[in-house]
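User: Is it possible to get a 3D structure for a protein together with its bound compound? The compound here is fe (ii) ion. I've pasted both below.
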Amino acid sequence: MSVQTTGVNEIPSCHGGLENLDTEYDYELVEVEGDIPIDIKGTFFRNGPGRQRIGETKYGHWFDGDGMLCAFSFNEGRVHFKNRYVRTPKYVDETAAQKVLYRGFGTQIDGGLRSNFLKMPANPANTSGIYHGGHLLALNEGGKPWALDPGTLETLGEFTYEGELEASMVFSAHGKVHPRTGDYINYGAGISGFGLKGPKPCINMYRINAAGKLFRKAQIPIENFPFCHDFALSDRYAIFFLGSIVFGNMLPVILGTTTISDQVKFDDKVAMQVVVVDLDTFKEVKRFETTPGAIIHFGNAFEEGDNIVVDGMFQDSFEANDTLSDVFNTANRFGGGWFLRYRLNMKTGEMQTEQVSDVESEFPTFNNTLLGTKNNVTYTACSVDNGANSFFNAISRVTFDGHADVVTLQPGYYGSEPVFVPKVDAKGEDDGYLMEVVYNGFEHKSELLIFRADAAFEQVCSLKLKHHLPHQFHGFYTPEVFPAPGS
Ligand SMILES: [Fe+2]
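Assistant: Yes, that's possible. Here is the predicted structure of the complex:
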């Protein structure tokens, strides 16, 4: 492929990192700069759209690319890489036909109304993953989980927790494992019935025990269901920020004349509602209201006295959707949000907000063993001005004394969500590493950078892949190593 440049000193733009990776690989990473830490034992998984085109056609939105799981398996100083597409019906059928056969969040099938009438968007299984209760799942909030073999990454099929996820129930990409109980808490947009005004929206909530059994479900009634991609989890509460990115009239979407993406708008007259749900009863226990805005991704949340402290990335528009629906346009900029910390007083109903960092950021992550309890360090992907600021090009290590260390990538290199990996026998919160997949626009290849996650915050090594990895959304780490059969 030809390298697209930003126009500034011929620096490659991020857009090459959106090109398809159609090949599925399985090999040991042997081209290494620096030393692979021997105190990492486990598997770093990532998910994201592996392709943005089928045949000659671009998908109508980044969210519609087909999910491709990647696994970096660490054991005794060696690292094995593997990538596999999730064999959803969309992937299988479109691969065979080499054309768009399914509607998406922002993609229409050729042929206008006749082709799109009453067809619901397909689930591309492309957003995130989880390994919990013995199941490796690829997730997208528009559908059900897809299960994969953690050793081979072969697709096992759509996953419903033995039928507990009923036909109408979808499952978000941002469930969280509650460390004290080992339970996995997730949710999805739902409908609890029909009233005079039409369908009654609700949050469907799910609780799954450490053995992988979905044992509690409930519906939290709400007035409207805005774009609600993530939630926060403290020890006793699930906290939902129902923000100002709202869905307009869905009738044209159902009829097939427009896409969901066309109907999603930031409405600055819609105040942000904060709904606090008790994890034991799965009932709403408190509601807060604040100025218009939206939180796409949350960091940690924890309880402190009468307060619930919640970290999130605040947006005051949804201009990002224009970029996401036209990803190959080199004029478009992929930006982030602003790192805010909220304090929700459960006794008085007051709500306070402070800005934690002044660096444009997204994808906040932290040591997940502290999820729901007080943490001191959060990591983010950042957009900074390094002469090629069209994508995430830095990572930050933020401590809550107002300090942020930022590591900036060279212009022409583009980053992703940094994921914390504890050392074997880690002694403290930041005793481990950050994993960061980076796209090298000069060579059209990707590499996995590993940084010390503690205050030293320096690069330890770079593991070079033989090819590029299309920009991905989310990853996670598990201290398990999954041998492939026959290896
Ligand atoms: Fe996300």
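The mean pLDDT is 94. The first strand starts at residue 26 and ends at 28.
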